[in-house]
């Protein structure tokens, strides 16, 4: 597993439930899963922006 894989899995584990609940309240059950998927797709693509590697700084 790469460092980015680990970082993404941690990000997802810590925030997926809250993002999904937010999407349920705002967009409803028909759209919440898509919002969750799209949110974390963007997070994966921009993982260095979402979770900067603190050791690099």
Automatic annotation (TrEMBL):
<dbReference type="Pfam" id="PF04542">
    <property type="entry name" value="Sigma70_r2"/>
</dbReference>
<feature type="domain" description="RNA polymerase sigma-70 region 2">
    <location>
        <begin position="11"/>
        <end position="55"/>
    </location>
</feature>
<dbReference type="GO" id="GO:0003700">
    <property type="term" value="F:DNA-binding transcription factor activity"/>
</dbReference>
<dbReference type="GO" id="GO:0006352">
    <property type="term" value="P:DNA-templated transcription initiation"/>
</dbReference>
<dbReference type="InterPro" id="IPR013325">
    <property type="entry name" value="RNA_pol_sigma_r2"/>
</dbReference>
<dbReference type="InterPro" id="IPR007627">
    <property type="entry name" value="RNA_pol_sigma70_r2"/>
</dbReference>
<protein>
    <recommendedName>
        <fullName>RNA polymerase sigma-70 region 2 domain-containing protein</fullName>
    </recommendedName>
</protein>
